């Protein structure tokens, strides 16, 4: 049955194998065709792969004409024996035609559809390419020679038909070590250094294209440029006429097809071929024995390139039958060595069952021969020596190199490459698909190696969402509106939210202004090395957000750019704010990348200022060591939380923030080189070592939970806190180097408990009383201070913040720990508990200085500092100073705050348990209030409170001052201070009251009603015009009763004099205008009045003044400048308008050195024009002096004199 099937197969092949279907395509004069011709022992799959790898390096057009890349197949016959014979005949005997050439011509008649044709031969394919050219170039039915060319790669021939170019390496062992020894070939013209795994250096794709791809493509393009159109090939005919097929050719076809079918589908034949590839040399050697060593060497070399593709002999049954020839006697044997590139290994011995099968089928075991030469100097005969050498089979698929050297576009989707190179300033554009339902709407590139050369780029710029579209867009397009956000928030974007992941960014950027899109989405996965010396970008257009770049690679190298920037401000017809930055995440195992990664928000001039949107996120992730490096901007997002790394680095001006409720775990974190990190609310940091270095700043939110062992502040770095939040840190070890600080400066209240009364000019209090503040304005605990400092009632000045540090190990402070207040504000709190405190730095909670503006505000009081320690060797500064300033005619200071040093090794108990007067009958027992720390006692009427002796019991080990059992005057409250063993203190205020005389009538009810003021007026009224320096303004006060005392009576923010009670519920006070007081040019002159009654009741400051038109001019006119206007006129400028009636028109009140003033006149308010009798020369700058005692301003203030200025002379 099998024999019948085989016969039928032969008949079918004979009669039907040449019923060709010719192409309908015309022979176009437009376009180029490049056809590869493969070498020996390549199957059609190999031929197609070689063609595809070459094709991948070209665009679809060349010179604006279509470019077709295809192949003509050089098949393998009889497992390579047929090809080896052909190669011998072609190389030694210049055979010009054989069965395969006819097949290629026939194949070309169907495939070639353009006039311009280039054949690219490799190895034996060069013989066929040359012969193809000879058969068709300017031949009947062929191609005119000006339209056809040949290019050779690894050629064993001695020419390239049509005088074409070629490329052969001197490291190609097949060509140079074998073939070149026996036939004349073209000399090598390139040196390709070989690497491990490159074999014999002969492979088309894995050697020549891999290392010299750019050269090959350049040569091919040069060859294409030489091809011309012709008038001989007509469009309706095939470009190449099919050859006539003889009966002998058909018989050959049947024979080859049948034999190849049997060999390729018979396992035992496959065994023979796999183990005996080198035996082909011996077989052919016996056929053409007369060519001897020449033939054997040629065949062995041609076959060597294909050995690696043979099946693994260890997986095939071998037949151990020795058919080798006997070794000749007395012969000198010299074996041709097998090079390392030929990859040899030992074949495993056959099993007993295999031996039996081999014996039954009588199939000999193939032996791989070596060639032996007899005689010296290369002479003598040759013979085959049997040697059991089996090839190692390399099953690794060869890598295809795809080169993009001109602008190319990829639609959204996923693309796979082996080696991808973007070069020659080419731009690989990656489209986005916003309408896709997939989560990833961009382009994903998978590659073994990816290289972007300098000048080249991968771009998804403006390939994201359309204008006004996307999660971060604001829809309004025709009016001024915010731009789009993504990784960074666009300026003034009301959505107030970014979107997507920072650690796995895959989103498109959102669109901004009309016709401007967001950046696209780039996903790159490289299994080996990603070299970026160019640009990988996903920028947004005007007002659009940047897109995403997400890279995963084994090795990251280069010095190029990763970029996903937001677009600039749009201002063409309407304004649209800049776009926010995009997102970049790069994952690698090793990196030497030294380039740039940026996700900048766009900027632009908007209105009167320059605005920028927020930067996006960019992170570098070391997957081998699980490290995170941020050197740009970054946001720890809740949707990416929790984070877990070995090492985290923020460097190179990194700006890092965090959303609320984010958890970060790492072994350590390093911030350096001007980096910043602001924590979110309820953040959890679990990081044993935190180091802040090189001018970096860490900002707490106040609600974070931090678990760490060591906190290091170095290199002028800062740990700080958000306003009105306690900076709290509990860790074993804190190290603060010189120049670095933990700072809560200006982080306290804007007002607060110690702020001065409204409209008061006093400084704020906390631990110490602010200047001119009331004595009761201090607050808080001096031994455990956690309150914020208070602000003054001017501007937005804040008091000092609050710092709470607990160090269970060592606190080393060689820098600064501070909670100082701003201007007019009080210092804040520092409360430290530490086992060991050392260093020579500074602890301070100082108040802020005086504010000097239109009015003066007093300086702030000191804060509170409490240090609890067990070991203390600190030698630096500990202070809570009240600040000073010049107020009026002298210096004024606020009160210092409190500094408490408490040895925690001793008891901290400091209470008064009893406080009695035992000498009185009956004994008087005090009431102790431990909450408010007060003691109250009431003694009988008639008791002399000036000579009382208290009996006091206090905590064990504590002391008290004043001492117990000592006579004390209790006419006024007395403060007793209890000091614990650890030096901490607690004050108690003891108040003694005397019972009323039981024989007196009842006292009237206590008066608690404050004075009531109903009106303030400036007298006389109405008044028009100015009050000048020295004038008196009278303030009239209408109240509900007589007998009140003035507490604060101010006019124009200046204290009045001559307060008079008129006895009818009205009062008057005088304000004398002084030089330097505030000018009032419009509105009502301000006044503020606080009165008190006999019971000590104060009214709230009354400030409503009946409107009047009086103005105050409290400043004398002064000479400001003088400038030449013409050669004989000078404009003299005063600080204010001058009463023209006081100006002497003769000008004798002015002198100009070197000139005579002939007249003076005020032509413009505040400017007097002087006329000179002599001209002023170019560049002359004499002094102008004013000496008048008559000049006055409109209010009558006399000008200050004498004064002089240097003349400004801009005459040409």
Element layout with pairings:
Blueprint: H1 2-16, E1 28-37, H2 44-55, E2 61-62, E3 65-72, H3 81-93, H4 99-111, E4 114-122, H5 125-136, E5 148-153, E6 166-167, H6 173-178, H7 204-226, H8 247-264, H9 267-275, H10 279-287, H11 292-304, E7 344-345, H12 352-361, E8 369-373, E9 382-386, E10 390-391, E11 401-404, E12 408-410, E13 413-416, E14 419-422, E15 427-430, E16 443-452, E17 457-459, E18 521-532, E19 535-537, E20 548-557, E21 561-563, E22 570-571, E23 575-576, E24 583-588, E25 590-591, E26 596-598, E27 603-606, E28 609-612, E29 617-622, E30 627-630, E31 633-636, E32 643-650, E33 655-658, E34 663-671, E35 676-678, E36 684-686, E37 689-692, E38 697-700, E39 705-707, E40 710-713, E41 718-721, E42 726-731, E43 733-736, E44 741-743, E45 802-813, E46 816-818, E47 829-838, E48 842-844, E49 851-852, E50 856-857, E51 864-872, E52 877-879, E53 884-887, E54 890-893, E55 898-903, E56 912-917, E57 924-925, E58 927-929, E59 934-939, E60 951-954, E61 959-961, E62 974-979, E63 985-994, E64 1013-1019, E65 1024-1027, E66 1032-1039, E67 1045-1051, E68 1054-1055, ...
Helix pairs in contact: 1-8, 3-11, 10-11
């Amino acid at each position: 049955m099998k024999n019948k099937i085989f016969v039928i197969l032969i008949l079918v092949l004979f009669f039907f194998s040449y019923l060709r279907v010719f192409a309908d395509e015309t022979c176009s004069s437009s376009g180029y065709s490049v056809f590869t011709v493969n070498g020996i022992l390549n199957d059609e799959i190999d031929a197609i792969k070689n063609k595809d790898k070459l094709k991948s390096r070209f665009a679809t057009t060349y010179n604006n004409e279509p470019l077709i890349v295809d192949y003509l197949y050089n098949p393998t016959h009889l497992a390579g024996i047929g090809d080896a014979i052909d190669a011998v005949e072609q190389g030694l005997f210049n055979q010009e035609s054989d069965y395969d050439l006819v097949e290629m011509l026939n194949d070309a008649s169907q495939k070639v559809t353009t006039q311009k044709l280039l054949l690219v031969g490799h190895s034996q394919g060069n013989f066929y390419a040359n012969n193809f050219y000879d058969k068709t170039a300017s031949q009947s039915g062929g191609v005119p020679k000006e339209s056809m060319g040949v290019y050779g790669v690894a050629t064993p021939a001695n020419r390239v038909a049509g005088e074409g170019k070629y490329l052969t390496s001197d490291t190609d062992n097949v060509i140079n070590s074998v073939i070149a020894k026996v036939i004349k070939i073209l000399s090598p013209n390139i040196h390709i250094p070989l690497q491990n795994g490159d074999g014999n250096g002969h492979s088309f794709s894995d050697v020549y294209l891999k290392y010299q791809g750019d050269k090959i493509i350049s040569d091919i393009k040069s060859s294409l440029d030489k091809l011309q159109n012709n008038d001989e090939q007509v469009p309706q005919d095939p470009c190449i006429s099919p050859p006539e097929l003889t009966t002998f050719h058909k018989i050959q076809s049947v024979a080859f097809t049948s034999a190849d079918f049997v060999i390729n589908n018979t396992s035992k034949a496959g065994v023979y071929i796999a183990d005996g590839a080198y035996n082909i040399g011996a077989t052919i050697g016996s056929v053409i024995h007369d060519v001897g060593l020449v033939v054997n060497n040629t065949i062995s070399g041609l076959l060597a390139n294909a050995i690696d593709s043979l099946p693994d002999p260890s997986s095939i049954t071998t037949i151990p039958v020795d058919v080798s020839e006997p070794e000749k006697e007395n012969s000198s044997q010299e074996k041709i060595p097998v090079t390392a590139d030929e990859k040899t290994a030992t074949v495993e011995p056959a099993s007993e069952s295999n031996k039996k099968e081999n014996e039954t089928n009588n199939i000999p075991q193939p032996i791989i021969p070596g060639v032996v030469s007899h005689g010296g100097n290369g002479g003598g005969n040759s013979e085959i020596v049997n040697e059991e050498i089996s090839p190692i089979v390399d099953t690794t698929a060869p890598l295809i190199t795809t080169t993009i050297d001109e602008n190319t576009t990829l639609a959204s989707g996923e693309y796979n490459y082996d080696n991808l190179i973007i070069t020659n300033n080419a731009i690989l554009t990656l489209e986005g698909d916003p309408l896709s339902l997939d989560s990833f709407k961009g382009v994903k590139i998978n590659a073994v190696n990816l290289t972007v050369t300098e000048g080249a780029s991968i771009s998804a710029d403006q390939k994201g969402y359309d204008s006004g579209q996307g999660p971060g867009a604001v829809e309004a397009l025709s009016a001024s509106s915010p731009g789009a956000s993504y990784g960074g928030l666009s300026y003034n974007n009301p959505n107030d939210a970014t979107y997507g992941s920072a650690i796995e960014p895959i989103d498109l950027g959102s669109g901004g202004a009309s016709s401007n899109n967001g950046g696209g989405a780039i996903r790159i996965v490289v299994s080996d090395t990603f070299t970026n010396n160019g640009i990988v970008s996903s920028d947004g257009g005007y007002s659009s957000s940047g897109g995403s770049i997400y890279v995963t690679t084994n090795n990251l190298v280069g010095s190029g750019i990763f970029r996903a920037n937001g677009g600039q401000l749009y201002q063409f017809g309407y304004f649209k704010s800049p776009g926010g930055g995009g997102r970049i995440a790069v994952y690698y195992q090793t990196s030497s990348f030294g380039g740039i990664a940026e996700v900048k928000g766009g900027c632009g001039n908007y209105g009167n200022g320059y605005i920028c949107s927020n930067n996006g996120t960019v992170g570098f992730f070391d997957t081998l060591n699980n490290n995170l490096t941020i050197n740009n901007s970054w946001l720890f997002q809740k949707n990416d939380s929790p984070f877990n790394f070995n090492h985290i680095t923020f460097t190179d001006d990194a700006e890092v923030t965090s959303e609320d409720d984010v958890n970060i775990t790492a072994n350590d974190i390093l911030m350096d080189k001007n980096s910043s990190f602001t924590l979110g609310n309820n953040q959890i940091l679990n990081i044993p070592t935190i180091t802040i270095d090189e001018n970096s700043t860490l900002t707490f939110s106040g609600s974070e939970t931090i678990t760490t062992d060591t906190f290091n502040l170095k290199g002028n770095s800062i740990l700080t806190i958000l306003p009105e939040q306690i900076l709290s840190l509990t860790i074993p070890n804190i190290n603060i180097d010189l120049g670095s600080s933990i700072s809560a400066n200006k982080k306290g209240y804007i007002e607060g408990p110690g702020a001065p009364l409204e409209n008061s000019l006093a400084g704020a209090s906390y631990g110490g009383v602010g200047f001119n503040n009331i004595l009761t304005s201090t607050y808080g605990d001096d031994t455990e201070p956690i309150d914020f400092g208070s602000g003054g009632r001017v501007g937005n000045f804040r008091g000092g913040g609050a710092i709470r540090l607990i160090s269970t190990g060592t606190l080393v402070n060689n820098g600064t720990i501070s909670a100082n207040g701003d201007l007019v504000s009080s210092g804040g709190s520092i409360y430290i508990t530490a086992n060991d405190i050392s260093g020579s730095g500074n602890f301070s909670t100082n108040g802020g200085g005086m504010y000097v503006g239109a009015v003066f505000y007093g300086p702030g009081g000191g804060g509170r500092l409490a240090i609890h320690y067990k070991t203390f060797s600190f030698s630096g500064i500990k202070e809570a100073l009240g600040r000073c300033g010049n107020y009026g005619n002298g210096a004024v200071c606020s009160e210092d705050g409190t500094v408490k040093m408490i040895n925690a090794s001793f008891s901290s108990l400091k209470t008064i348990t009893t406080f009695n007067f035992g000498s009185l009958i009956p004994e008087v027992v005090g009431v102790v209030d431990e909450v408010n720390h007060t003691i109250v006692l009431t003694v009988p009427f008639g008791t002399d409170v000036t000579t009382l002796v208290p009996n006091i019991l206090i905590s064990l080990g504590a002391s008290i001052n004043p001492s117990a059992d000592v006579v004390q005057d209790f006419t006024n409250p007395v403060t007793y201070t209890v000091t614990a063993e650890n030096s901490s203190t607690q004050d108690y205020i003891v108040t003694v009251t005397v019972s009323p005389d039981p024989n007196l009538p009842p006292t009237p009810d206590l008066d608690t009603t404050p004075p009531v003021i109903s009106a303030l007026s400036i007298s006389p009224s109405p008044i028009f015009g100015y009050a000048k320096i020295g004038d008196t303004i009278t303030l009239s006060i209408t109240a509900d009763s007589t007998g009140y005392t003035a507490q604060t009576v101010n006019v124009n923010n200046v204290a009045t004099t001559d307060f008079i009670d008129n006895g009818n519920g009205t009062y008057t006070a005088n304000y004398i205008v002084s030089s330097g007081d505030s000018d009032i040019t419009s509105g009502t002159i301000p006044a503020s009045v606080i009165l008190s009654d006999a019971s000590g009741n104060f009214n709230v400051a009354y400030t409503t003044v009946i409107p009047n038109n009086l103005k105050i001019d409290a400043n004398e006119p002064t000479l400001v400048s003088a400038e030449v206007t013409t050669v004989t006129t000078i404009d003299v400028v005063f600080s204010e308008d001058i009463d023209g009636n006081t100006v002497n028109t003769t000008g004798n009140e002015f002198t100009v050195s070197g000139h005579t003033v002939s007249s003076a006149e005020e032509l413009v308010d505040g400017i007097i024009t002087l006329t000179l009798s002599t001209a002023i020369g170019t560049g002359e700058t004499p002094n102008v002096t004013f000496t008048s005692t008559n000049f006055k301003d409109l209010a009558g203030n006399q000008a200050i004199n004498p004064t002089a200025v240097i003349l400004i002379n801009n005459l040409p």
